[in-house]
């Protein structure tokens, strides 16, 4: 029989936080729901966590005093004001860049077959990994997509969703690497999104200049994602001026 | 004896007379609130969540009267299983209704955050104001935890700091938030209150 959770388990495993972010497996979710149905503290924690998630977009950006801007004298800031290179006194990534790099909703997978024709074992691995992705089990999705890539699946979609899974599991460096491979593959349906989400990953790592470069490419590629890219580009520029 | 079931400030008696269940009104309230959260997460609609809570509580009462809960420690899992069935039934019914009534034959699209309905605009503004008063480093821990949904270990990795330090700072940040909001003590710093199941045998 499954052991009964207590609040110490809930805090240690971040169950409230992951429940709100839809990051629990079906089993974890079942256990946690069974716990909080009779636990007022956890219900209050869920209410507070929901409030935090709802309130977060209303927060004013954090003060920019920890940011150091290198001006145009160093040849690194663009005249348009969009390409300021941001270095940060502490090694930690500034909260505002982290916030701009956040991805609340993972890129949507529409379930379109990877390629025409008969499917092989690699495609089965991809399909299985994408089932996990759709169910928001991103750790499992990433592992499955790596296996599918090793088995020779069509690399652009697999690398793209591997990058997305890594981004959703807080591995921005590896995510940026995967999106880089999609970009290196050239003209694919994933090109604009790969630039956009690599920019997100780079922001999470505090690499604002590189992120801006990606966003400008995505912006030029047009479409809906181009619009998002231009908006994010603008937000970074505004943040850099504060 | 009837089982007292409260909804908001109004107390009423539910169901036909039957044997006592030993669950206090506050415990029924807690169970109902928990089911409402669970249903809201699944259905994304407060009215449907309330409907699920009402129906589930009625079924739990009936099940307890019939002595179907063998292990009182498992009341949460028992009630959760009942609520899960009620939610699935409602979803099926909604889909049937939509198919009959809607020209597109589809359910409405999901809300961005299914539990957002738990927070009013006023509460949200108060929480934003309280968050703003946290030090930047604490804000960051709160953001990574609740917005990104990271575990304390993942936050620690992301910020390259020891896990114990992150847990302590998070606990302090949440205590400060609760204090600013006038909310009750959280569970980060204390063991849980006595479980419902440990207080009585709801048979």
Count of DSSP strands of chain B: 2
Supply the helix-strand structural class of chain A: mainly alpha
Q: Figure out the total of helices of chain B.
A: 8
Low-confidence stretches of chain A: 63-91
- The radius of gyration over CA of chain B amounts to 20 Å
Biggest interface in this structure?
A-B, 58 and 68 residues
Strand residue content of chain A = under 5%
Element order of chain A: H for helix, E for strand: HHHHEEHHHHHHHH
* Sequence of strands across the biggest β-sheet of chain A: 1-2
List unreliable stretches of 5+ residues of chain B.
1-20, 98-112, 189-203
Order of helices and strands of chain B: EEHHHHHHHH
Estimated helix fraction of chain B: 55-70%
Description:
The complex is a heterodimer of chains A (242) and B (203). A two-stranded antiparallel ribbon of chain A has the order 1-2. Helix content of chain A is 60%, strand content 3%. Residues 63-91 of chain A have low confidence and may be disordered. The longest helix of chain A is centred in the C-terminal third of the chain and has 19 residues, at 223-241. In chain A, helix 9 (172-184) runs antiparallel to helix 10 (191-204). Chain A contains twelve helices and two strands; from the N terminus they run H-H-H-H-E-E-H-H-H-H-H-H-H-H. In chain B, 60% of the residues lie in helices and 5% in strands. Chain B has helices spanning 25-43, 46-65, 75-101, 121-132, 136-147, 152-159, 163-181, 196-199; strands at residues 3-7, 10-14. Chain B is elongated. Residues 1-20, 98-112 and 189-203 of chain B have low confidence and may be disordered. At the A-B interface, helix 1, helix 2, helix 3, helix 4 and helix 5 of A face helix 1, helix 3, helix 4, helix 5 and helix 6 of B.
């Amino acid at each position: 029989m499954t052991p009964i959770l207590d609040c110490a388990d809930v805090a240690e495993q971040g169950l409230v936080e992951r429940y709100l972010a839809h990051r629990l497996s079906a089993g974890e979710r079942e256990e946690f729901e069974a716990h909080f149905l009779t636990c007022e503290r956890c219900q209050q924690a869920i209410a507070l966590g929901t409030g935090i998630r709802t309130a977060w977009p209303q927060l004013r950006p954090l003060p920019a005093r920890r940011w150091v801007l290198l001006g145009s004298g160093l040849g690194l800031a663009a005249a348009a004001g969009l390409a300021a290179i941001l270095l940060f006194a502490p090694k930690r990534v500034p909260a505002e860049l982290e916030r701009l790099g956040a991805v609340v909703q993972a890129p949507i997978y529409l379930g379109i077959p990877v390629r025409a024709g008969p499917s092989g074992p690699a495609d089965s691995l991809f399909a299985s990994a994408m089932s996990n992705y759709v169910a928001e089990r991103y750790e499992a999705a990433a592992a499955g997509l790596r296996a599918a890539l090793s088995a020779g699946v069509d690399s652009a979609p697999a690398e793209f969703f591997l990058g997305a899974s890594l981004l959703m599991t807080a591995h921005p460096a590896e995510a940026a690497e995967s999106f880089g491979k999609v970009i290196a593959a050239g003209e694919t349906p994933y090109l604009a999104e790969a630039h956009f989400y690599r920019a997100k990953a780079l922001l999470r790592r505090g690499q604002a200049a590189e992120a801006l470069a990606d966003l400008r490419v995505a912006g030029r590629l047009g479409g809906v994602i181009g619009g998002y890219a231009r908006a994010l580009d603008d937000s970074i520029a505004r943040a850099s001026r504060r | 004896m009837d089982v007292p079931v409260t909804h908001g400030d109004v107390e009423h008696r539910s169901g036909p007379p039957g044997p006592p269940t030993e669950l206090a009104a506050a415990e029924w309230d807690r169970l109902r609130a928990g089911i409402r959260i669970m249903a809201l997460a699944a259905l994304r609609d407060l009215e449907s969540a309330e409907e699920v809570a009402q129906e589930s509580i009625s079924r739990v009462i009936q099940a307890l009267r019939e002595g179907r809960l063998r292990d009182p420690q498992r009341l949460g899992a028992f009630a959760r299983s009942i609520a899960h069935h009620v939610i699935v039934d409602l979803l099926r019914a909604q889909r049937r209704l939509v198919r009959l009534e809607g020209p597109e034959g589809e359910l409405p699209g999901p809300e961005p955050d299914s539990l957002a309905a738990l927070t009013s605009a006023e509460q949200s503004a108060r929480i934003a104001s309280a968050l703003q008063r946290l030090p930047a480093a604490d804000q960051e821990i709160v953001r990574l935890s609740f917005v990104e949904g990271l575990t304390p270990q993942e936050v620690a990795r992301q910020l390259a700091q020891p896990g114990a330090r992150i847990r302590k700072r998070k606990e302090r940040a949440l205590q400060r938030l609760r204090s600013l909001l006038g909310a009750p003590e959280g569970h980060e710093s204390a063991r849980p209150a006595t479980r419902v199941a440990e207080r009585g045998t709801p048979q």
